[in-house]
Design goal:
By secondary structure, this protein is mainly α. It has eleven helices and four strands; from the N terminus they run ααααββββααααααα. Helix 1 runs antiparallel to helix 3. The protein starts with 13 loop residues before the first helix and ends with a helix.
Amino acid sequence: MPSGQGPPPPRAKGVWGSVAAVGALLLFKAKSVLGLLKLAGLGKFAVTGLSMFAMIAFEAQRAGWLFGVGFVVLIFIHEMGHAVAIRREGLEAGWPVFIPFFGAMIALKGRPQSRVAEARIAYGGPLAGTLASLLTAGLYLLSGSRIWLALAYSGFFLNLFNLVPISPLDGGRVAQVFSRRASLIGGLLLGAMFLVTMAPQLLIIGVFAVMHNLRRRQTDTASSLPPAPPEEQSTWSLRYFGLCFFLGASIYFSNRLLAGAAP
């Protein structure tokens, strides 16, 4: 999460730090408790709920409860985007687990049968997260409340970061579908857009996209899945770089609005 401009002024409260520490302790040490919950048929839900509460408490001590809840909901929607895509591919998705400061993860049970299927699963998260962030931006336009704008900015920032084309981020799984030409052109265009928006993710994505282009032959050899058909390569290049451009522009405009919004 960006510092300074995004969330409202922090309101640190020691009690929430203690709650977060207790939540982390429960997640990583209380194996016997989780075992009992699993026997009761509540294990997966309990892990998700406890980890979600721990992350809300972690975010709340930095920017307040409303921001903490809203930010975790945005991450949850991102993960549900992956879950829906996983199930559409005929695979099984686990429950999301939240890790304070790092984000969240969702288990994939099984293996995608093609690079395109893997790209659809990876792309589902940032796409859902972007739509959720747009909703919070709409709530800001309706209410004028800065908290919704801060959430929108944070959501745009988070989802663009996830599109950096390196593993294990979502962008790394989508990038394996690109053609070498698309990686090079898209990377250079994103680098140019960075000069306008100054969104650091665009520069990072641009650099890694060009690097991905240079070592594409090595990446293709290492993968056990065959390359995607040319038409799929073109389609996914447009989807990926189009979403990157959109999120970069959204970060730019929401950041400017935050700079002018009343605290």
